[in-house]
Structure formats: structure tokens, C-alpha cells
Amino acid sequence: MSDTLLKPGRHGAAHGTATGPAGVTVAPAAPSALATLVAGRHRADALADALDRRFGVRPPLRPGHATGAGIGFIGVGPGRWLVLGDGADGAAFEAMLREAAAGLGAVSDQSDAFLLFDLSGPQVRRALAKGVAVDLHPGVFRIGDAATTPVGHIGASFWRIDDIGDAPVYRFAVARSYAASFIDWLLASAAEYGVEVMAAGRD
Fold first, then answer.
1. How far apart are the C-alpha atoms of 76 and 89, rounded to whole Å?
2. pLDDT above 90 (res 200)
3. Three-state secondary structure along the chain?
4. Most buried of 6, 21, 89, 138, CB within 10 angstroms?
5. How far apart are CA 113 and CA 109, in angstroms?
6. Tens of pLDDT along 109-156?
């Protein structure tokens, strides 16, 4: 579905045409298995410890993200995470997480429920500020931070993964049923800066 939502090309202001740099770039992220993980009552710390032993990365107990070899945890609430498996099969990934979280938490495969998008560019903060009630100043929202919040009245989770030069990169997880509305909002909000839609995102 992301391929039909995001057709490569330039949109928006004149400086976003083929002859000039776009202020914002957007691309579908590389395919990942995705599951939700919820800790049992008073078991968030124990679950995080168990997952650290199993995968070599400890899920953050705050709004943030942590990545290991082929797996990433995004804190979306107290004792709640989105878990990404790079290139993994959704059902197999869910089974692996269930085994690792046995007796400590509940796992549900959501690989078909969300779409992932990477947003970047020198004007991406200005564009997002039109609909994101989070301070994205680089000294406040740092690499490794995450947020779950409405984006232009559309619920989403996003996290800052790294920078390209001086420009930040944010990865958004949006419910599939709201993805078209999210893209419409993004293209309208970023139009004045110029938007370049890329064919594929980053791993």
C-alpha cells in the first residue's frame, strides 16, 4: 500500500522541483515485521531484563527506541513497546517474542496493521511543527527519543533514528487505515518547502 501512496517525484514549492533541493523527503521504510508487546502488571523491568538477555538490547522504559541485531524496541507507553524485526516474517517474529516474553508479557503480530515512513530534510522540523505537539529541537528531541502523539489529528508513533548531514531522520509508524490521511497531511504541510518522495527508505 505504501507504494501506491508514495509515488516517487517532487511536490510543492518551486525550490522542490527537479532543479532544486527539496526541503523535506519522505520514503517508505524497509519492510519489517512489527509486533506490540505489553508487560504484565509490575513486570516491565523483569521483561526488559529478559529481552536484554535474549536479544542483547534492553527495551527502553521511557519514550525512546533501542536497536540490536535485527530488532528494535520503541517505547510507546508504560510497559508497552512496538517491536520491529528487520526483514522478518511476522508470524515467526511473533512466536520468537512470545517465547522470550513467556510469563512476563503479551505479544501480538501487527505487521499488516502499520506502515512505516522515513521523513528527513532540512525543513522537516518546520513541516512537522504544523501538526506535531512535540518539541523537535535537536537539543530536546535527540537521536534515540520517541513519541506517540496525534500528528495532524492522526495517531502515530515516531522516533529519531539518525541524521543525514545536518538534517534529522524520523521514522513514523502509522496505522494502515490512516496512512493515506497522514500522507495527505504531510504533503500539504510540507508543500511550501518542496517535498521529494523517494522510492525506498533506509534499513
1. 22
2. no
3. CHHHHCCCEEECCHHHCCCCCCCEEEEECCCEEEEEEEECCCCHHHHHHHHHHHHCCCCCCCCEEEECCCEEEEEEECCEEEEEEECCCHHHHHHHHHHHCCCCEEEEECCCCEEEEEEECCCHHHHHCCCECCCCCCCCCCCCEEEEEEECCEEEEEEEEEEECCEEEEEEEEEHHHHHHHHHHHHHHCHHHCEEECCCCCC
4. 6
5. 9
6. 999 999 999 999 999 999 999 999 999 999 999 999 999 999 999 999
Q: Please give the model's pTM, rounded to 2 decimal places.
A: 0.90
Q: Which CATH architecture has domain 23-29+113-196?
A: 2-Layer Sandwich (3.30)
CATH, domain 32-109, list 3.40.50.12280, 1.10.220.10, 3.30.230.10, 3.30.70.1520: 3.30.70.1520
Q: Which three cell numbers stand for residue 26?
A: 519522505
- What distances in angstroms separate CA 197 from CA 9, 26, 51, 115, 154, one per listed residue? 5, 5, 36, 15, 20
pLDDT of residue 1: 43
Model confidence at 12, in pLDDT bands (50, 70, 90)?
A: confident
Outline which parts of the chain fall under CATH 3.30.1360.120. Answer: 23-29+113-196
Residues 6+ apart with CB under 8 A from 127: 23, 24, 186, 189, 190, 193
The residue type found at 90 is G
